[in-house]
Design goal:
With 260 residues, the chain is an alpha+beta fold. It is built from seven helices and nine strands; from the N terminus they run ααββαβαβαβββββαα. α3 crosses α5. It is globular, with a radius of gyration of 19 Å.
């Protein structure tokens, strides 16, 4: 393997440990009640003014488990992977919300939350399909790691969480610098992507520079009722080449289906 590829892989592994192997563990009580329930609207498009938060036990049942996504390994994120929102900072206040979500930190004040690490398995024998060392390397390390987080909120907390993230994605599209676990990373550009699912959904491709190397991450959030499913993803092969990769739609679809 070429020195450049080895260096890029090392950088990629560092970024992945910071950005994807983090967990918003535990649960906190919501800082808001459901408020007034409001009056029923006569139109078919009417939505309830408040949602009841799922309990920790209900979120565990709705979280992804091994076997839910074909070709992927799924496990619970451990305590050692935890990161708090206070440990993630951005040089622009408007970008704090986006930085937290990208790093896997808890957004707002969820009533409960769970977190899973989901890793795709590389195509079997893919590294032997090409005589080109670079292509073989990409095939062997074509592994997308996704941090899948479920957070439940009282009242309009889930709607407000996704709205705040969407606003931050727009206001911070030209970039910002964030610090997590003592390491700085520069978000160069945020580009909106299309994603479907739930009652509301949004996704972005995030171009990052760390230690002089260019990397790409994906961030997606889907809301179903008072629950927000957040997906922060990183692909090792893409990082080694400075390229792009696809949204983990299979993971997103499977999680949304379990939320029902």
């Amino acid at each position: 393997m070429r020195p450049t590829a080895i260096r890029r892989t090392a950088v990629a592994a560092t970024v992945m440990s910071l950005a994807l192997l983090t967990a918003s563990c535990g649960s906190d009580t919501a800082d808001k009640g459901s408020g007034d329930k409001g009056k029923a609207d006569a139109t078919a498009s009417a939505k309830p003014a408040a949602a009841k938060a799922l309990t920790a036990a209900e979120l565990e049942k709705a979280s992804l488990a091994q076997g839910d996504v074909k070709g992927h390994k799924i496990s619970k994120a451990g305590p050692a992977d935890a990161v708090a929102a206070g440990d993630v900072t951005a040089d622009k206040a408007a970008c704090d919300v986006f930085a937290d979500a990208l790093m896997g930190a808890k957004a707002g004040s969820p009533a409960a939350s769970t977190q899973r690490k989901v890793m795709s398995e590389p195509k079997k024998g893919g590294d032997k399909d090409s005589a080109d060392p670079e292509k073989a390397f990409k095939a062997a390390f074509d592994i997308t790691t996704t941090l899948a987080t479920l957070s439940s909120y009282e009242g309009k907390g889930a709607e407000e969480t996704l709205t705040a993230l969407r606003t931050a994605g727009t206001e911070c599209a030209s970039g910002f610098t964030l610090k997590a676990a003592g390491a700085k990373q520069k978000v160069v550009k945020i580009t909106e992507e299309q994603v479907k699912g739930g009652e509301d959904a949004a996704a972005w491709t995030v171009a990052i520079e760390a230690e002089g190397e260019k990397n790409t991450m994906k961030l997606a959030q889907v809301r179903q009722g008072g629950t927000v499913a957040s997906f922060s993803s990183f692909n090792l092969a893409a990082a080694s080449s400075g390229g792009d990769f696809e949204l983990p739609t299979a993971v997103i679809d499977a999680q949304v289906a379990k939320l029902g």
